[in-house]
User: Which sequence fits this backbone?
């Protein structure tokens, strides 16, 4: 654990067997109210790590806020445990509700994930939702949370954090911006050297990649000296990194266009197999099953963005979606 700014501490919580490796766990310490940001996976060793941090910084659960940037289990897995300890939880209404609808296997979020897999043509991969990292390390019960509403503020000592909307990585991801100190806690919205996964969340959320790019536009214009993101490397220049993310998605969209031109009318799975992935697998059959969910979801988000741009068409046949370049 180290102090990265006055009274702001960073500890690394391991994420075993996960390509992200660890969560950047932030603590804003004050004599009155303190705040922690996100939780790590729902694992016993992560509980022990957090308890050591509470002891070292002399944090009192009843005087500590847990701010959840978004619903993924590496950010929320211990939310139930920490609420039971006495922490007050803030989460966006969208992601908080989705989180509470993901506790049981038959809950709507996992049933929607399975349905999306069918649309994407993943049934032949025989994926089991119990292998999904989000399911394995999720919170064990519903949480009671205060809605984190963009435009409202949370005061911690000398810091007055504005809640800001960062939709894209999830439908309701939020961050914390301290204008005077030029600090942004951005969750997974911007990561250094890692491209945040932008996945298809369902047609009710529209063109989620387009939404993400608009959120990047907003952050690009913000005055930020300290960008505190959730995984591994911290970003020194947020505008330079955003330019790199724009470039990544432009290239990914080109890959999707080329895949459709090569294969013609295609399922999401067919397109996914033709994209370049930073995973050491000889072919799609050796691709880790847990990562197939994320890869197909990302390809699907890019295909839906091309559809929103008017470049491709989509039709459903026998429960599976097919995409084609518009003639």
Assistant:
């Amino acid at each position: 654990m180290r102090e990265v700014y006055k009274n702001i501490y960073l500890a690394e919580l391991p994420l075993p067997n996960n390509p992200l490796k660890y969560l950047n766990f932030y603590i804003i310490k004050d004599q009155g109210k303190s705040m922690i940001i996100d939780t790590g996976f729902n694992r016993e060793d992560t509980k022990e790590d957090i308890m050591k941090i509470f002891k070292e910084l002399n944090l009192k659960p009843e005087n500590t806020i847990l701010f959840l940037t978004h619903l993924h289990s590496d950010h929320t897995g211990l939310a139930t445990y920490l609420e039971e300890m006495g922490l007050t939880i803030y989460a966006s209404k969208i992601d908080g509700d989705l989180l509470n609808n993901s506790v049981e296997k038959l809950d709507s979020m996992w049933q929607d994930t399975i349905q999306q897999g069918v649309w994407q043509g993943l049934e032949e991969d025989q994926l089991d939702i119990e292998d999904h990292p989000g399911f394995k390390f999720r919170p064990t019960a519903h949480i009671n949370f205060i809605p984190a509403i963009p435009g409202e503020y949370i005061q911690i000592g000398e810091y007055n954090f504005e809640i800001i909307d960062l939709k894209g990585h999830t439908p309701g991801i939020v961050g914390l911006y301290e204008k005077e100190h030029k600090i942004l806690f951005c969750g997974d919205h911007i990561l250094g050297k890692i491209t945040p996964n932008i996945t298809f969340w369902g047609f009710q959320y529209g063109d989620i990649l387009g939404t993400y790019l608009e959120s990047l536009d907003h952050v690009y214009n913000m005055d930020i000296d300290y960008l505190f993101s959730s995984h591994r490397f911290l970003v020194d220049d947020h505008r330079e990194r955003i330019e790199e993310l724009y470039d990544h998605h432009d290239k990914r969209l080109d890959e999707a266009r080329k895949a459709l031109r090569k294969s013609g009318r295609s399922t999401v799975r067919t397109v996914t197999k033709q994209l370049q992935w930073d995973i050491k697998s000889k072919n799609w059959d050796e691709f880790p099953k847990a990562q197939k969910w994320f890869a197909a979801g990302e390809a699907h988000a890019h295909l839906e963005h091309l559809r929103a741009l008017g470049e491709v068409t989509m039709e459903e046949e026998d429960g599976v979606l097919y995409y084609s370049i518009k003639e």
The longest strand covers residues 8-14. The longest helix spans residues 238-263. The two ends are 56 Å apart (CA to CA).
